[in-house]
Amino acid sequence: MAFEGLADRLQSTLSKIKGKGKVTEADVKTMMREVRLALLEADVNFKVVKDFIANVKERAVGQEVLKSLTPGQQVIKVVNEELTKLMGGEQSKIAVAKKPPTVVMMVGLQGAGKTTTTGKLANHLRKSYNRKPLLVAADIYRPAAIKQLETLGTQLDMPVFSLGDQVSPVEIAKQAIEKAKEEHHDYVLIDTAGRLHIDESLMGELQQVKDAVNPDEILLVVDAMTGQDAVNVAESFNEQLDITGVVLTKLDGDTRGGAALSVKAVTNTPVKFAGMGEKLDALEPFHPDRMASRILG
Ligand code: GDP
C-alpha cells in the first residue's frame, strides 16, 4: 500500500506523544527529529522537509491552547494541518471554461499513465459531472497510442477524434476543437505525445499545441512510484509549459510518498487527481486533508 512505511513511522512516533498532558520543547524536538527522518526516508524533497519541520516546531512549541485536546493531541493536530497544507490545502478542482468546450492538454513522459488517465478522466467527468468529453489522439509517435485511446473510447462508449499519425498534433488539436464545438462536447481531452525523457523537441511540440489551442488546463501525468524523479519532471514541465495541475498515477502501488508530499511545494502546482489502479474508474480527486489523515492514521 502507498505510504505504508511513512504512515507506520509517523504513527508510532506520534503515539509516543499522544497521551502526554504536558509537552515540553524537548519532547517536540525529539519527535520532530523522528518525523524528519521518516519524511526523508519516504523520499520527500530535502528542502520541503526542512521547511515543514520548521513550521511544525514553531507552531507546536508556541501552541494555541485548545481545551478539547491534550497537549500531545494538539501537536498531532499541527502535524496533520501542516501535512495538509504541504499537499495544497484545499482540494483543487479541474478547470471549467466560461464558454465550452473546456480544453485540457494531457502531458507527460511515456509510461507515466497519460493515455490511461485521459480515459479515466473522461469517465470521471461523465460520471461525476454529467459531462460529454471528446477524446483526442494527438500522440502520433508512440505506435500503439492512437489505437490504445480508441480502445479506451470503445470501452467507455465515447468518441475519439483521430487523424492518424501523418497529421501534425497542432492540426489534430485544432480540428478536434472545431468538431467538439459542432457536436456540443463540453470537454476536449487531448492526449499529447510523450517521450522517454524530456527533450527540446517534445517541449517544442507541446508548446506549439499550447499556443494553437490555448488550453484551460494542462495536466501533467507523473508516476508516483518514481519519487523525486516525478517531482523533477514536474519542475521541468512547469518551467517550460506552465502546467496547471498534476495527476499522480500508481498511488495504489507501494510508493513511499515523496512525490505526493513534494510536488505542490516544489512546483507550486496542485495535485488534482490520483490514479488508484489500471481500471477506468480508478481515478480519484486528490484531497490533501484526507491524504494527511490517511498517513497519520
Ligand atoms: P503513457 O505512455 O503515459 O500513455 O502510459 P499508459 O497510459 O500506457 O500507462 C502505462 C501503464 O501504467 C499501463 O500498464 C497502465 O495500465 C498503467 N497505469 C496507469 N495508471 C495507473 C495507476 O494509477 N495504477 C496502476 N497500478 N497502473 C496504472
Number of strands: 8
Q: Give the biggest beta sheet.
A: 8 strands, mixed
Rounded to the nearest angstrom, the distance between the terminal CA atoms is 14 Å
Question: Residue-averaged pLDDT, rounded?
Answer: 93
CA radius of gyration: 21 Å
Secondary-structure element order, N to C = HHHHEHEHEHEHEHEHEEH
Number of helices: 11
In spatial order, strands of the major sheet run 3-2-4-1-5-6-7-8
Strand content: 5-15%
Helix content: 40-55%
Q: How would you sum up the global shape? A: elongated
Low-confidence stretches: none
Bound ligands, each once: guanosine-5'-diphosphate
Report what the structure shows.
By secondary structure, this protein is α/β, with parallel strands linked by helices. The protein has 11 helices and 8 strands. It has helices at residues 4-18, 25-41, 46-61, 71-86, 114-129, 145-156, 169-182, 200-213, 228-241, 258-267, 288-296; strands at residues 102-108, 133-137, 160-161, 187-191, 217-223, 245-249, 271-275, 283-285. Strands 3-2-4-1-5-6-7-8 form an 8-stranded mixed β-sheet, with helices on both faces. Helix 6 links the parallel strand 2 and strand 3. The two termini are 14 Å apart. The model has no long low-confidence stretch (mean pLDDT 93). Bound molecules: guanosine-5'-diphosphate (GDP). Guanosine-5'-diphosphate (GDP) is lined by residues 108, 110-116, 194, 249-250, 252-253, 275-278, 282. It is found in: Cytoplasm. It is an enzyme of class 3 (hydrolase). Part of the signal recognition particle protein translocation system, which is composed of SRP and FtsY. GO terms for molecular function: 7S RNA binding; GTP binding; GTPase activity.
